[in-house]
Amino acid sequence: MIKLINEIKYDLNFIRTHTLQPQWYKVFKVFMILAFIIGYYFVLGLLKTIIFFTLFFVLSFIVHMVYRVKTNRFSRSWLDFVIVEEENQIRAESIGRFYYMAIILNIIISLLIGQVLI
Q1: From CA 20, how far away is CA 23, in angstroms rounded?
Q2: What is the pTM of this model?
Q3: Domain span at residue 39?
Q4: Which of 40, 75, 98, 106 has the smallest number of CB atoms closer than 10 Å to its CB?
Q5: Is the pLDDT of residue 43 over 80?
């Protein structure tokens, strides 16, 4: 259990400190997701919102874990995740097309399944 908590802390630290997105966007997307979920709730109801959010969270967690494993805990380049070494320090430089396409696909799958189930 302690190892799991340490790994979660590692990921949270990476998310907080990475430079793949501007700091303002990291904050903005939290509000963007909350606004979407609240709007979804008011338009389609609680059950569909829970289904959508749960599916989206699970699918996004899978994308996160794939990138985490393939990049060796975000320390090597893979696909559209680019790592550069400067002055004996490793930093993430970019993430792009494949990652964001996976997130959009997660949204579409979550929307479709949420609509079909109920």
Answers
A1: 9
A2: 0.91
A3: 2-117
A4: 75
A5: yes
